[in-house]
């Protein structure tokens, strides 16, 4: 439980230094250590730390890359005088001791997604260009992690009371299954409060629940749809989908975003082209599965069993609010539920459609399951819930959230942007109490040659990192001013 002790003030101030002095000290630290900070980021970026379970070994449970990056991060922390621990390659941590063992935490991740195609910069090397740092992990999440780690070092040199120990956690499996955090929480207590520099400013205080499901048809006799495939992953609006059907391709009409070609032996191949989007923001996409289902239904390219299945798919993918399948809802913190149908495929003589829903507190997982099961029962299909994460929420008026928001506003002067929630998931949701806190400021536009997370030419503004650094130093100082009892 966190108590305010400073009357009407936002939170208790540290007596030795005021806020302006703390931020000025942070600015001076950055200016003096800028080259060292960039060198530390480069040290990590040079390690291709993508998951490789085929090469997993003792001390490297997620493969050699994540293990090497984890060890390098711990070496950087040790070089700052912090006591570092490598937890068998699963995760690591470094502590800045306080007056008590009660912990405030920070967690970043040292693993990255593969480089992928399309780079004009060398992916596993930091390239400095026009005030930007380019390279895989510069933004997600090696660059922000190094900045936050240096904020801890800066704080250690300030005349600021530290009643709480700061534990910096270095994850190694965030991009895939977060097995690193699961291992940690089986072996260690959660910090009393934690933030991760792996999202957007000003501060994210909640994450929608996650719900995946799978709809499977009954065996289909004498099919018209000989094969069908769409999407790559469950948690995205699919950009491509196709089907091979019994039909005369020459007799089929043209349609927007649809191409038809003769596939031989009295069959036609229909391709649908949509727009990919993450399941957290499905309104940004156009479902290729929706386009394909619409075309097949409108042109009678299905038998009765297939029609019933496609009509259910159509209900699922044509409305991202879930209204088509009876699960539309919203609450005051998260807004509306969202749903996407990520993949469709044929397995033997059955059709299989997956779904991903991001759900607020105004519905339960049981209600989602019941709604979908009722629809599948009506057509002799089956429904299975394949992933479940409950909503994560720390209310926006919580003292820790207010401290983070206040630090952001003080450093930037920005009073327009407010605490928010997201449909995605970060490390924060796995802990007792947490938030995601920077470094992105999505309202600031980058040059066209600077890419984002997970894409080619990933990059981050050095000015953004410097601003984030000052925010983190102030936030860490003022979190120490809260009373945790």
Notable traits:
485 residues; alpha+beta; six-stranded mixed beta sheet; 9 helices; 29 strands; elongated; disordered N terminus
C-alpha-based Rg, rounded: 25 Å
Straight-line distance between termini: 6 Å
Oligomer: single chain
Tally of helical segments: 9
Shape: elongated
Question: Mind summarizing the main beta sheet?
Answer: 9 strands, antiparallel
Q: Got a strand count? A: 29
Low-pLDDT segments, ≥5 res: 1-14
Task: Give a written overview of the molecule.
With 485 residues, this protein is an alpha+beta fold. 28% of the residues lie in helices and 26% in strands. Strands 11, 12, 14, 15, 16, 20, 21, 22 and 23 form a nine-stranded antiparallel beta sheet that branches. It has a six-stranded mixed beta sheet with strand order 2-3-7-4-8-26. Strands 5-6-28 form a three-stranded antiparallel beta sheet. Strand 18 and strand 19 form a beta hairpin. The protein is elongated, with a radius of gyration of 25 Å.
Task: List strands and helices in order, with pairings.
Layout: E1 2-3, H1 19-45, H2 64-79, E2 83-87, E3 91-96, E4 103-109, E5 127-129, E6 132-134, H3 142-156, E7 165-171, H4 179-187, E8 193-196, E9 199-200, E10 204-207, E11 209-216, E12 225-230, E13 236-237, E14 240-246, E15 258-264, E16 267-273, E17 277-278, H5 288-298, H6 304-317, E18 330-331, E19 335-336, E20 338-340, E21 344-347, E22 350-359, H7 365-378, E23 382-389, E24 392-393, H8 399-412, E25 420-422, E26 434-436, E27 439-440, E28 459-461, H9 462-479, E29 483-484
Parallel strand pairs: 4-7, 4-8, 8-26, 9-27, 10-25
Antiparallel strand pairs: 1-29, 2-3, 3-7, 5-6, 6-28, 10-24, 11-22, 11-23, 12-14, 12-21, 13-17, 14-16, 15-16, 18-19, 20-22, 21-22
Helix pairs in contact: 1-2, 1-3, 1-9, 3-9, 5-6, 8-9
């Amino acid at each position: 439980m966190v108590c305010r002790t400073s009357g009407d003030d936002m939170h208790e101030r540290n007596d030795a230094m005021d806020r302006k002095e703390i931020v000025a000290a942070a600015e001076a630290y950055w200016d003096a250590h800028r080259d060292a900070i960039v060198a530390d980021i480069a040290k990590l970026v040079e390690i291709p730390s993508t998951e490789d379970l085929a090469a997993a070994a003792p001390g490297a449970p997620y493969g050699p890359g994540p293990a090497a990056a984890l060890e390098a991060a711990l070496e950087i922390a040790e070089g700052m005088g912090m006591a570092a621990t490598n937890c068998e390659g699963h995760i690591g941590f470094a502590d800045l001791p306080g007056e008590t063992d009660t912990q405030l935490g920070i967690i970043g991740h040292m693993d990255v997604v593969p480089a992928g195609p399309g780079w004009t910069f060398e992916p596993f090397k930091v390239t400095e260009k026009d005030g930007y740092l380019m390279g895989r992990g510069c933004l997600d999440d090696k660059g922000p992690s190094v900045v936050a780690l240096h904020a801890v070092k800066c704080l250690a040199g300030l005349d600021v009371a530290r009643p709480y120990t700061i534990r910096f956690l270095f994850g190694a499996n965030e991009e895939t299954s977060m097995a690193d955090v699961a291992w940690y929480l089986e072996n260690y207590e959660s910090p009393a409060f934690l933030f991760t520099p792996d999202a957007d400013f000003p501060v994210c205080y909640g994450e929608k629940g996650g719900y995946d499901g799978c709809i499977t048809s009954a065996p289909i006799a004498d099919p018209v749809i000989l094969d069908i495939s769409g999407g790559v992953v469950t948690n995205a609006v699919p950009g491509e989908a196709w089907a091979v059907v019994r039909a005369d391709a020459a007799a089929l009409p043209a349609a927007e975003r649809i191409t038809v070609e003769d596939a031989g032996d009295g069959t036609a191949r229909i391709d649908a082209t949509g727009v990919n989007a993450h399941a957290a923001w499905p309104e940004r996409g156009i479902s290729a599965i929706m386009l394909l289902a619409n075309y097949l239904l409108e042109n009678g390219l299905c038998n009765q069993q297939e029609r019933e299945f496609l009509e259910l798919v159509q209900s699922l993918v044509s409305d991202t609010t879930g209204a088509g399948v009876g699960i539309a809802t919203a609450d005051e913190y998260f807004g509306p539920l969202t749903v996407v149908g990520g993949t469709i495929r044929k397995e033997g003589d059955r059709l299989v459609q997956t779904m991903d829903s991001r759900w607020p507190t105004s519905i339960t997982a049981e209600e989602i399951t019941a709604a979908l099961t009722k629809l599948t029962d009506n057509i002799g299909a089956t429904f299975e819930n394949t992933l479940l994460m409950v909503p994560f929420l720390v209310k926006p008026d919580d003292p820790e959230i207010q401290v983070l928001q206040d630090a952001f506003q003080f450093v930037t002067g920005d009073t327009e942007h407010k605490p928010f929630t997201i449909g995605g998931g970060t490390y924060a949701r796995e802990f007792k109490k947490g938030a995601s806190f920077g470094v992105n400021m999505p309202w600031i536009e980058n040059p066209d040659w600077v890419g984002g997370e997970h894409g080619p030419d990933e990059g981050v503004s050095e000015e953004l990192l410097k601003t984030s650094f000052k925010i983190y130093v102030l936030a860490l100082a003022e979190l120490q001013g809260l009373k945790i009892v």
